[in-house]
Design brief:
By secondary structure, the protein is mostly helical. The protein is built from four helices and no strands.
Length: 125
């Protein structure tokens, strides 16, 4: 079942796919198939290359993450601020599944950060 057609109407500007898994600890929620009757170019960044790129633009990472969170109606801590803006053509159940995956991943990350902080405090670090 096709849920969304990915296309680009802007010359020299390809659509971005896989951004959620790049910025949040979630499994990439969707797959993409290319048409067999045309040319496709795909840019793949390795984890190391991605990390090098992110390290070079740390101030932009926060802005990108906040924009993604806002799309799903979440604040910087992963709490609901609105219902979100489902402008990707995905049906509501897919949208809510992705939103809940982000919320759960952020809660787990916050728990791990607190656990590490408590462990460091206990050991005197």
């Amino acid at each position: 079942k096709i849920k969304r057609v990915v296309r680009h109407d802007v010359a020299n500007m390809a659509p971005v796919l896989g951004e959620l898994a790049s910025f949040f600890p979630v499994v990439q929620p969707m797959t993409v198939r290319a048409r067999s009757d045309g040319d496709v170019q795909l840019l793949v960044l390795s984890r190391d290359d991605s990390n090098d790129l992110f390290d070079s633009y740390l101030e932009e990472i926060t802005r990108i993450c906040c924009n993604i969170l806002h799309t799903f109606g979440l604040d910087r801590k992963g709490h609901d601020i609105s219902e979100g803006v489902d402008d990707n053509g995905a049906d509501n159940s897919d949208f809510m599944t992705i939103k809940n995956s982000i919320k759960n991943a952020m809660a787990k990350q916050q728990y791990e950060n607190l656990r590490k902080l408590c462990s460091a405090a206990k050991s005197g670090d």
